[in-house]
Amino acid sequence: MNKITTDHLARRAFVYVRESSPRQVKHNLESQPLLYALADRARALGWQEVEVIDEDLGSSATGTRRSGFEQLLRAVCAGEVGAVFSIEASRLARNGREWHTLLDFCALVGVLLIDADKVYDPRLIDDRLVLGLKGTISEMEVANFRERGQAAALAKAKRGELIRRASIGYVKTPDERLERDPDARIRSAIELVFRKFAELGSVRQAYFWLDREQIQLPIGLGAKGAHKAVWQPARYHAVLSILQNPVYAGAYVYGRSKTVASLEDGQKRLRRLDHLRREE
After folding, report:
1. 24, 148, 153, 233 - which has most CB atoms within 10 Å?
2. Are 132 and 17 within 8 A, CB to CB?
3. Predicted TM-score (pTM) of this structure
4. d(C-alpha 28, C-alpha 23), whole Å
5. Could you state, in order of their start, the residue ranges of all structural domains in the chain?
6. Which residues are catalytic?
7. CATH tag, 6-151
């Protein structure tokens, strides 16, 4: 049975392109031509109007809003879409909730889901069953990948070898070790903070002295601890952070903080909680 009808062809075909992270966009160069080639597949199947949505390239795993996916859902609900193309049907959504929302909307307004191999009609019970299983399997694969990655990271942390980022005053070597920063100015600034703390006896007094003397401190930039520092006037929490950092005492610590997820205005939000009670 030909599932593609004149009604489907009278509407537009949408090609949804996404990659989970900027790293995938940079290194998975073989997959992107395949994704964009779906537009040619749509034309070969008879669609005259084909729109490619690729706003979510490199951002779909960040937990932030996906403007491209939201644009796709709006077009589906408005009755503008005859078919949605993806390299693999279950890759259209990031999680089970999004996947089943998309399936429900497509079934309601008669939109086909088409991947590199097959045409699915969510209104047909057999196709809906297959699509549901594909989504569940995909979600389990992602969960398994995440669990294995977390287990590997924990094992490395137990050996004292997991270094997420280099604290200011240190640099991370290619073989995953920490070495003191070769920048003498950075080392001197860190040493000055500890010297004044020992001399004055409190974080607050050390901060007041640094502020009064207009001393600038180096602040590390880069999510992965890239070796880049900017100099800023001393701030209390910057001084406290340096004094509480175990690395300056030669200690390795893992698990000082955790990330907690919550829902705000229907969107996922991540907050980092510090396990250490900060004393003034």
Report:
1. 24
2. no
3. 0.59
4. 8
5. 6-151, 170-255
6. 20
7. 3.40.50.1390
